[in-house]
Design the sequence.
C-alpha cells in the first residue's frame, strides 16, 4: 500500500475514533441525566436522605435485601442495574488506552474524576429540578471506575497481544 493511501487511512481512522468518542460521551450524558426539564420542575421530591448514598458497597447488602424482601425479579433487576453501572465507563477505559494514557493508575484517576463529575452533576441538576431526582451514590463511583479500568486493561492486553502476534508473523514471513 502506498504512503499516501496509508496516510489517508490513518487520518480516516483517527477521525472515526474521535467521532465515535463524541457519540459515546453524548450517550453517557443521556443515560446519566435523562431528559432535561426547562424550565426546571417546581417539585423535585429531592431529599438529602434519599438522594445521597455515601456508604461504600451498600449495593451488595441492598442486593440481598431486594432478594429476601421483594423476590427474585427485583434482585435480578438490581444486579442488572449494578452491571450496567459497571459497563457505562468500560468504553472510556478503551478510549484512554487508544489515546495512549500511559499507566493504569492515570487511567483509573481519570475515570474516577469523570465518574465523580457525573455524580456531582446529577446531584446539582436533580436539586435544581433540571432533571428528575437522581442520587449521588458512592457505589456508582466504585462500579463506574472498576468498569473503566477493566476496559483499559482489556484493551491494553489486546494491543500487546496484537503486537506480539504481528511481530511473530513478520519474523515467520520475513
Sequence:
Amino acid at each position: 500500500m502506498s504512503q499516501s493511501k496509508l496516510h489517508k487511512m490513518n487520518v480516516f481512522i483517527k477521525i472515526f475514533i474521535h467521532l465515535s468518542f463524541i457519540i459515546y460521551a453524548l450517550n453517557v450524558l443521556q443515560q446519566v441525566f435523562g431528559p432535561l426539564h426547562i424550565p426546571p420542575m417546581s417539585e423535585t421530591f429531592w431529599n438529602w436522605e434519599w438522594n445521597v448514598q455515601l456508604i461504600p458497597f451498600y449495593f451488595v447488602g441492598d442486593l440481598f435485601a431486594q432478594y429476601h424482601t421483594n423476590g427474585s425479579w427485583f434482585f435480578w433487576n438490581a444486579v442488572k442495574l449494578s452491571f450496567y453501572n459497571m459497563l457505562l465507563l468500560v468504553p472510556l477505559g478503551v478510549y484512554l488506552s487508544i489515546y495512549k494514557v500511559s499507566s493504569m493508575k492515570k487511567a483509573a484517576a481519570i475515570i474516577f474524576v469523570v465518574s465523580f463529575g457525573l455524580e456531582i452533576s446529577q446531584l446539582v441538576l436533580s436539586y435544581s429540578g433540571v432533571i428528575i431526582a437522581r442520587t449521588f451514590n458512592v457505589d456508582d463511583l466504585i462500579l463506574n471506575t472498576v468498569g473503566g479500568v477493566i476496559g483499559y486493561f482489556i484493551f491494553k492486553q489486546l494491543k500487546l497481544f496484537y503486537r506480539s502476534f504481528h511481530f511473530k508473523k513478520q519474523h515467520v514471513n520475513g
Summary: Residues 162 and 168 are 10 Å apart (CA to CA). The chain has a mean pLDDT of 87. The chain has one domain: 3-173. The beta strands are 52-53, 136-137.
